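Q: C-alpha cells for this one, please.
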Amino acid sequence: MKDSDFVRRVIGILTEAKQMQTLIEEDPDRDDLSGENMRALLNEMLPDIEFPMDATASDLAEALSAQLGPVIERLTGVFSLIYLALAEIHDAGRTDVSSTDVLQDLALRADDLWPDDDEDAE
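A: Here is the predicted structure, written as C-alpha cells:
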C-alpha cells in the first residue's frame, strides 16, 4: 500500500472517531454506534500474517513481530504526523481552520506530500 493511501486511511479513522464523538455528545445514551468502519480501515492497512504449520510459540511471536512491526511503525509515524499538523494549527491560535479542515487538506495533498512513496512498502 502506498504511503499516501495509508495516510488517507488513518485520516478516515480519525474522521470516524470525530463523528462518533459528536454523536455521543448529542446523545450520550445512544447504543447504536459501532467502530466497524474504523476496524475496516485498520484491517486494510494490516498485512496477511503467515505462520509455518509447525510453528512454536516463539516462532509465532517472532513472525508477528517481523510482519506487524513495520506496519506499527508506519501507523505510529502517520498518527504522529497528523497530530503534529493539528497541534501546529492549535498552538498558532488559528481559529479560522478546524481540525476537519486540516485532515481534509492532508488527505487531498497526500500524493504531493509523499510523491515517491513505495507501493511495495507493506
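A few notes: The chain is about 70% helix and 0% strand. Residues 57-91 form the longest helix (35 residues).
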